[in-house]
Amino acid sequence: MTKSLLLYLSESNGFKNFLTRFKSFNNVTHRFVAGEDVAEAVEAIRQLNRKQISASFDHLGESIRAESETRQEVREYTRVLDQIEKNGLDSNVSVKLTQLGLDIDEELCYENARAIVEAAARYQNFVRIDMEDSTKTDPTISIFKRLRREFDNVGIVVQSYLYRTETDVKDLLQIGARIRLCKGAYKEPETVAFQDKADVDKNYIHIMKILLASGIYHGIATHDEKMIAATRQFAEEKAIASDQYEFQMLFGIRRDLQEKLVKEGYRMRVYVPYGEFWYPYFMRRLAERPANLWFVFKNIFKG
Ligand SMILES: Cc1cc2nc3c(=O)[nH]c(=O)nc-3n(C[C@H](O)[C@H](O)[C@H](O)COP(=O)(O)OP(=O)(O)OC[C@H]3O[C@@H](n4cnc5c(N)ncnc54)[C@H](O)[C@@H]3O)c2cc1C
Question: How many other C-beta atoms lie within 10 A of the C-beta of residue 215?
Answer without folding.
Answer: 11
